[in-house]
Amino acid sequence: MTMPEDIAAEGQDMEQIRQAVRALCADFPGKYWRQKDRDREYPTEFVTALTKSGFLAALIPEEYGGSGLGVTHAGAILEEIQKSGCNGGACHAQMYIMGTILRHGSPEQKARWLPKIASGELRLQAFAVTEPTSGTDTLSLSTTAERDGDHYVVNGQKVWTSRAEHSDLMLLLARTMPKDKVEKRTDGLSVFVVDMRKALGNGLTIRPIRAMINHSTTEVFFDNMKVPAENLIGQEGKGFRCIIDGMNAERILIAHECIGDGRWFIKKATDYANERVVFGRPIGQNQGIQFPIARAYAAIEAADLMVKKAAAMFDAGQPCGPEANMAKMIGSEAAWQAAEACMQTHGGFAFAEEYDIERKFRETRLYQIAPISTNLILAYIAEHVLGLPRSY
Prior knowledge:
The chain is α+β, with helices and mostly antiparallel strands. It has three domains: about 5-120, Butyryl-Coa Dehydrogenase, subunit A, domain 1; about 125-240, Butyryl-CoA Dehydrogenase, subunit A, domain 2; about 240-385, Butyryl-CoA Dehydrogenase, subunit A, domain 3 (Up-down Bundle), CATH 1.20.140.10. About 50% of the residues lie in helices and about 15% in strands. The strands form three sheets. It has a four-stranded mixed β-sheet with strand order 1-4-5-8. The protein has a four-stranded antiparallel β-sheet with strand order 2-3-7-6, with no helix packed on it. A two-stranded antiparallel ribbon has the order 9-10. Strand 9 and strand 10 (about 280) form a beta hairpin. The longest helix has about 35 residues, at about 240-275. The protein is globular. Residues about 1-10 have low confidence and may be disordered.
């Protein structure tokens, strides 16, 4: 039974984490992110600072050098990063990929990788699932991994594999049994940890994709790439179930980032509305300015409740597919509503780089599309929650 003093202590602990993240982010102001965005550079200094502080090892158990915290705490870290005007997209995968390794990795695998990930010696940032032809239809992916003695030989292609150029390890989902031979659509897929330091140039090719935002995304190609059999996570052919834990964590953590973005936009808009004087009065005195900001604030606060619920369920080990998906959808839409209000409040100045709004505007728009689109979430809710006929 949770006692009031336990709740109070947990709240104090969470606030200390938030304060520490804000202090770290203060060393990386807007001009740092504008330069990285302009030059399409990876924020190595920021990621290094987060690693040294221990924030990126939040989910790793203490016995492996981490903090042993839950998704709720990891979400607070990412939320504060976004709320501070920074961008957690450069490193958030290390947190949500943990869901697969921590719940399905063997003791030997955890001992081999987790201490080095916690210390920063290894980076686990690349999540290779999506393919050009299958998109979000994960069960139709065609990249293959065939067993050959003590190795698997991988052939195929992935796309939107972000941070592959800046990661040492990659979590890969590949087909180990032909699609037409499985009894269930969810069977026949397996999860591997790929050591890209060894694979690059030995069957692995990485090609950067220049996109609307500086997300360091790539497409990767596998040409007879060998992966040691000991790098298989969980049971062969049952990888989809393993990857789901990572996907639910991904949706919840990105929803936290959306809440952070939304709060950044709302503060930015509110401050400007109070300071900007036109026709002899602050523009914030006009209801045409007030109401959109107020609606965005209400939407963010409502979304925050859904995000907290999903995180609590995940940490409790409860099934949370619907909650994780709804949190991500509602959070991303609320953040976009706040972004729109902020843009309109600033008018022409919102398009100037120095205000950071146009950069954050582009960044937050991504999350209505990735890691899963709003339409797919609605289809999932309709079928799996409401019991409506499958629409796709």
